Amino acid sequence: MERSELADPVVVAAIADQVWRNGPWMRLREVHDVLDELIGAVRAGDPGAIEPAVVVLEVDPMFHGSGYAKEKLMRALGQVPIGPGHAERLRAVVIRRCRVRGPRHELRALRSLARAVATPGLVTDLRALPPGPARDRPAEEAFIDAVAAAVT
What is the pLDDT of residue 135? Predict the structure, then answer.
């Protein structure tokens, strides 16, 4: 695979998934390098980096270290101007992340992203999320409350 193909976030996600399942692990370093470049470009305010960053968050690839990379992308996107089309897609990412159970170390990054793409309807949408399993309900509500509080 050519290095230029690694510029496409969908290809990056597919490679990461393949590497995670089948190896070789050296390819995973390439994926991390590309994501690090993307994070740097978003932080530098490169408007061409916004679309690939949004796609990575939408695709939500799962591989070793992906959570940290996505957390950095959320923080970076929360600090740069976002156009209305990207904002709408990122609001969907915020809502989806609030529904995911599991570790919540990305709370600060998600709050930053939520503030950057907030609309009056976002809090309503967050509050309307269906409840998860009873054992997770208090933690889930606390997480949604924290994100909603960052927006209001």
Answer: 46
